[in-house]
């Protein structure tokens, strides 16, 4: 159970157990958070729990689990991109859902220029409230399907990074995401468990889409969940026919 919140100068502070856990787990990822950022994370948590009673955002609602499985996991991108705090990278989070990993990354690395893409308008409404409440800048929530948005010249092949925690096989996810990445940029999906078979079947699809599978960074969260960041380099432009029309990438994954 969360500790009772303290009030200082009229501002409700995050409970000590939340602050200590988030600081500790972030530091283990190599990320240092100041008091303002920790308060932003707590405000985000409270909005998530409130909205989750009206919109299905997450099955994970217990404070300790949200910190580990959503916040800390999201910040792990720094393991794949060590200079994340130093450059104004452009980043798109495809299938962002409740904002993971895009919003935690924006809080921890304010220099990032972030686009959150999701197909459900109710989730976009939630994301916009979070952006406003946390006073985040250089971040936008966009309503749309990846299959459509990736054909928009404003978004196509314009991002330094594409990230996604969406549940889909590597072939399907690459077709959704690689078209957003500029040549020389990276697609970094977050994946669970063993990946050997998925990577084996996904290599051909990644090549067809203009990517090259470089490596996998494996790590464990504080609760010992095994997680992976797959680093896929965009080496050439994606063919104009990709992604294929809505539903096709998941029904008929590229090989």
UniProtKB/TrEMBL annotation:
Tell me the InterPro entries matching this sequence: rRNA_ssu_MeTfrase_G, SAM-dependent_MTases_sf
What's a Pfam family in this record? GidB
Q: Which CDD domains match?
A: AdoMet_MTases
Identify the GO cellular component terms for this protein. Answer: cytosol
Which keywords accompany this UniProt record? Cytoplasm, Methyltransferase, rRNA processing, S-adenosyl-L-methionine, Transferase
Q: Where is this region: Disordered?
A: 232-255
Localization in the cell: Cytoplasm
* E.C. number(s) listed in UniProt: 2.1.1.-
Question: In its keyword annotation, does this UniProt entry include Methyltransferase?
Answer: yes
- Listed binding positions for S-adenosyl-L-methionine are 95, 100, 146-147, 165
Q: Does the keyword Methyltransferase apply?
A: yes
User: HAMAP family, from UniProt?
Assistant: 16SrRNA_methyltr_G (MF_00074)
Function noted in UniProt: Specifically methylates the N7 position of a guanine in 16S rRNA.
Membership in a protein family: Belongs to the methyltransferase superfamily. RNA methyltransferase RsmG family.
Q: Which PANTHER family match?
A: S-ADENOSYL-L-METHIONINE-DEPENDENT METHYLTRANSFERASES SUPERFAMILY PROTEIN
Instruction: Give the protein's recorded name.
Output: Ribosomal RNA small subunit methyltransferase G
Please give the organism.
Clostridium fessum
